[in-house]
């Protein structure tokens, strides 16, 4: 996030915003300056002059009051449009990058962008308004007496030096608060994903404890951040008070020596207050902006375009040699050597914990093996690493989106619509679709769960079928489907020319015999070094 990019979001609107705030500063300065004539006419008993300046000041004050909300509204609209662009770029980054936890994405797209909006973008309004007010106030003081500017300059230097005391601590406390917010969101994701189980077993106390610990850390971090901001404001306030009182005293001395009029003394104090209040506002705004340095650096990384990935290649075979995978607890699981040739239909079996799903993660490039090698073979016989391989994959947990059943199958590729009819027949979904309110155009309701577990799995199987990848991985892809329907789905799949590697339990002996062969994993674990 940069000021330049913020202003470039809409250049015509930026020009209008600057002009509105310029008019606001000019009218505000005029209103204060006219108080000089009001005071002098009042002291001289000039009633008509006094009334004229009062009315004029009232008219300009009303105009001034209207300008500030207009300029603020336009600038806030600019901020929101800029944030919209940033969110779009961040979402593109997450789409193209390695998998990221949902809580981290929520923190970046929600909390961190709100912090940048409040503590980086919005403070520029204060800076621009107060900078204009200060320039005009200094110009006005010069018309009164040169020594007033000298006093203001000396105090200004002091005031400008004060914020350096807190800048580093304030930046650190803001970044820490953002970090603790990310941790809290991550905890919420981890625990609330199993909220039903916690309720079922009455484990609310453990939930409260887990959330309470991270919530307290977040609270402490926010309290510390606000504490640093309060200290910074207090330090800036000391300089502001010194400036206002000092200028007022000096202007009073000039009045008693008959160098300036009573009206000049009255507005000198007002313009001195404008200068030092403006400096205080500017310094506070700059302090806020500097506190977001680390967050802005993070966002800048996220909106940078990632290098284009090399296109993946279709694969037909697989080889595994001396493969070992190490878990985070140090335990190592070993796999037998095997080769899967083009068109083979292979059933992967084994007891729970023997590493079936872990093997799939290796094949999908999500886990790097500890030892050995595993690679795919393309149609020309070339080796391809897992991250280079284009695979069809169906997970046990079906991932659907809040759109039509048709779009969930084609994954929004309308060019594949002509294949829908045959595909839903192959995965035994046709009868289910016939019972849906709008058939294949029925919307999937993720909140109400209008599709059963088996229907969801059939939709994802249809998705893999319609994209027709030559090598297909299926991880318990029919676990929620009844045995009779499973038999039909798998039998249809095994009649294709695809290379299939399927994890399954409780298949009937007849169905198991339809596979070319089985790879049976056994518990072969050892402690890592």
From TrEMBL:
**Where, subcellularly, is it found?**
Cell membrane
Q: Which Gene3D superfamilies match?
A: ABC transporter type 1, transmembrane domain, P-loop containing nucleotide triphosphate hydrolases
Domain ABC transmembrane type-1 residue range list: 15-291
ABC transporter domain location is: 318-527
Q: Which InterPro entries match?
A: AAA+_ATPase, ABC1_TM_dom, ABC1_TM_sf, ABC_transporter-like_ATP-bd, P-loop_NTPase, Sigma_54_int_dom_ATP-bd_1, Type_1_exporter
GO cellular component terms? Answer: plasma membrane
Please give, as recorded in its UniProt entry, the membrane topology of this protein. Answer: Multi-pass membrane protein
Keyword Zinc assigned to the entry: answer is no
Keyword annotations for this protein, in alphabetical order, are: ATP-binding, Membrane, Nucleotide-binding, RNA-binding, Transmembrane, Transmembrane helix
Positions of transmembrane segments? 51-75, 148-166
GO MF annotations in UniProt: ABC-type transporter activity; ATP binding; ATP hydrolysis activity; ATPase-coupled lipid transmembrane transporter activity; RNA binding
SMART domains listed in its UniProt record: AAA
Report the SUPFAM superfamilies cross-referenced here.
ABC transporter transmembrane region, P-loop containing nucleoside triphosphate hydrolases
What is the name listed in the Swiss-Prot or TrEMBL entry for this protein?
Lactococcin A ABC transporter, ATP binding protein
């Amino acid at each position: 996030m940069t000021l330049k990019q913020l202003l470039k979001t809409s250049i015509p609107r930026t020009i209008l915003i600057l002009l509105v705030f310029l008019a606001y500063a000019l009218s505000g300065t005029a209103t204060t300056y006219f108080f000089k004539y009001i005071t002098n006419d009042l002291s001289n008993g000039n009633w008509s002059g006094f009334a004229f300046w009062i009315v004029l000041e009232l008219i300009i004050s009303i105009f001034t009051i209207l300008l500030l909300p207009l300029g603020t509204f336009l600038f806030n609209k600019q901020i929101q449009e800029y944030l919209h662009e940033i969110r779009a770029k961040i979402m593109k980054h997450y789409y193209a990058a390695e998998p990221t936890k949902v809580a981290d994405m929520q923190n970046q797209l929600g909390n961190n962008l709100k912090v940048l909006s409040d503590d980086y973008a919005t403070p520029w309004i204060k800076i621009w308004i107060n900078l204009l007010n200060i320039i005009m106030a200094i110009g006005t003081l010069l018309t009164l007496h040169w020594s007033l500017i000298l006093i203001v300059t000396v105090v200004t230097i002091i005031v400008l030096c004060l914020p350096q005391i807190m800048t580093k601590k304030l930046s650190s406390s803001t970044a820490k608060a953002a970090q603790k917010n990310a941790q809290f969101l991550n905890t919420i994701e981890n625990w609330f994903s199993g909220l039903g189980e916690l309720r079922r077993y009455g484990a609310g106390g453990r939930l409260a404890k887990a959330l309470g610990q991270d919530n307290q850390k977040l609270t402490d971090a926010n309290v510390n951040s606000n504490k640093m901001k309060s200290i910074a404001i207090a330090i800036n306030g000391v300089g502001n008070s010194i400036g206002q009182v000092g200028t007022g005293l000096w202007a009073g001395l000039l009045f008693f020596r008959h160098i300036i009029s009573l009206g000049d003394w009255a507005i000198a104090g007002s313009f001195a207050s404008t200068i030092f209040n403006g400096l205080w506002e500017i310094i506070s705004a700059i302090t806020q902006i500097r506190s977001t340095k680390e967050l802005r650096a993070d966002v800048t990384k996220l909106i940078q375009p990632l290098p284009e990935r090399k296109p993946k290649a279709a694969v037909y075979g697989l080889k595994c040699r001396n493969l070992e995978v190490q878990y985070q607890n140090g335990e190592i699981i070993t796999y037998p050597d095997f080769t899967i040739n083009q068109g083979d239909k292979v059933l992967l079996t084994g007891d729970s914990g023997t590493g079936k799903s872990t093997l799939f993660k290796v094949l999908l490039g999500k886990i790097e093996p500890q030892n050995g090698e595993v690679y795919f073979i393309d149609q020309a016989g070339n080796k391809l690493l897992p991250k280079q391989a284009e695979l069809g994959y169906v997970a046990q947990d079906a991932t659907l989106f809040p759109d039509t059943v048709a779009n969930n199958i084609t994954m929004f590729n309308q060019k594949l619509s002509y294949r829908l009819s045959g595909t839903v027949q192959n995965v035994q979904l046709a009868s289910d679709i016939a019972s849906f309110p709008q058939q294949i155009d029925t919307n999937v309701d993720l909140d109400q769960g209008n599709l059963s577990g088996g229907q969801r799995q059939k939709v994802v199987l249809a998705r893999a079928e319609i994209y027709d990848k030559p090598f297909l991985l299926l991880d318990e892809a029919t676990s929620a489907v009844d045995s009779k329907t499973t038999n039909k789905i798998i039998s249809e799949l095994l009649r294709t020319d695809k290379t299939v590697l399927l994890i399954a339990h409780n298949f009937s002996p007849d169905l198991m015999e339809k596979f070319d062969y089985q790879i049976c994993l056994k518990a072969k674990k050892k402690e890592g070094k």
